């Protein structure tokens, strides 16, 4: 390959990197709360005086923001956050979009960049639950919103009285359900004590929600207690295949006769969102305490091995390979939640 061709190919790779700029810029702005700082038009000097940040580096960040339209330039050298492009960062309270950026920039990308080291050494990264527990809990709640309507529909139709959320995170999902079902008793279970404490504080006004610190993989309710609905959302990648079967077999012993287990999980080897799901699977596989994502075939085998029926298997985020489905005792027959033919995993053809 001659030097001209090499240079052209190098330029093409540079062009591809431009799509990363908005992500980097938004992450920095979220981390330093700069979008709120520039909510009203301000100069770089004014912000430096307020925050003590490096003027030179802040000016560079502002220049990038103006070029990609995250910031709008105003008269007198002032800049203002674009509500159209970055309005989500101006809202008060927790920010799931910001948490998603933080998870990607501080957790996913560093792990993927270390892939050569792991491949050569056969070593693995170690996922730090304490450091990233809050961020992962926030992003999981964001993803669960895509399935909340199906949960509420099921609770209403089947007159659910008890809900247990295993791996509940900050409890945001339970609080959303509790607003519509104040009479339903709800329990959140999470292994991270700090995350549970945050959930308790946020749920102080909800009399029907309780929380406990426990490992969802081996926790059991009080003797004789049954659950009508168990939420098992974004949990499988914390468990190896054997532990997944053991967990579901455990759940069947305290699931009510007409109960349901709601599962949300990213799935590997999907036709839709394959690029993301395979990269996501690479991230999990690079950790010694995280595990490869299940495939559609794995999920069917898992249900059978646990004595459960799989139904309503559907994609909820096509771009990311996230799926939601129900698991129920094999004795339950409910035509309303039977899997539609077009939703059934096409294992033989390798398509979903």
Automatic annotation (TrEMBL):
GO terms for molecular function: methyltransferase activity. Keywords: Methyltransferase, Transferase. Transmembrane segments: none annotated. Residues 163-259 form the Methyltransferase domain. One of its GO terms (biological process) is methylation. It comes from the Bacteria. Pfam families: Methyltransf_25. Signal peptide: none annotated. This is Methyltransferase type 12. It comes from Pontibacillus chungwhensis BH030062.
């Amino acid at each position: 390959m001659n030097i001209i061709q090499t240079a052209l190919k190098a330029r093409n790779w540079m062009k591809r990197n431009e799509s990363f700029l908005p992500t980097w810029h938004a992450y920095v702005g979220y981390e330093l709360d700069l979008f709120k700082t520039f909510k009203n038009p301000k100069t770089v000097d004014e912000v430096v005086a307020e925050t003590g940040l490096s003027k030179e580096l802040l000016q560079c960040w502002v220049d990038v923001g103006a070029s990609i339209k995250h910031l709008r330039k105003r008269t007198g050298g002032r800049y203002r956050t674009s509500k159209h492009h970055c309005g989500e960062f101006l809202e008060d309270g927790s920010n799931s979009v910001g948490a998603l950026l933080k998870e990607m920039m501080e957790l996913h990308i560093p792990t993927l960049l270390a892939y050569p080291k792991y491949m050569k050494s056969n070593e693995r990264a170690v996922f730090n639950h304490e450091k990233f527990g809050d961020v992962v809990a926030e992003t999981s709640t964001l993803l669960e919103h895509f399935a909340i309507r199906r949960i509420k529909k099921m609770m209403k139709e089947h007159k659910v009285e008890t809900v247990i959320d295993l791996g509940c995170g900050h409890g945001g999902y339970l609080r959303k359900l509790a607003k519509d079902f104040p009479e339903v008793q709800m329990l959140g279970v999470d292994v991270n004590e700090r995350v549970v404490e945050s959930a308790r504080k946020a749920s102080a006004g909800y009399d029907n929600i309780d929380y406990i610190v426990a490992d969802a993989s081996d926790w059991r309710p009080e003797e004789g207690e049954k659950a009508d609905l168990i939420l098992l959302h974004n949990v499988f990648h914390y468990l190896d295949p054997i532990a997944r079967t053991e967990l579901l077999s455990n759940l069947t012993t305290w699931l009510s006769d007409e109960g349901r287990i709601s599962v949300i999980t990213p799935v590997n080897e999907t036709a839709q969102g394959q690029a993301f799901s395979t990269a996501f699977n690479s991230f999990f596989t690079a950790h010694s305490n995280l595990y490869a994502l299940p495939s559609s075939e794995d999920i069917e085998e898992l249900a059978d091995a646990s004595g459960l029926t799989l139904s309503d298997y559907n994609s909820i985020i096509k771009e990311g390979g996230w799926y939601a489905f129900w698991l129920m005792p094999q004795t339950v027959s409910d035509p309303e939640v039977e899997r539609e033919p077009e939703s059934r995993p096409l294992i033989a053809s390798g398509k979903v």
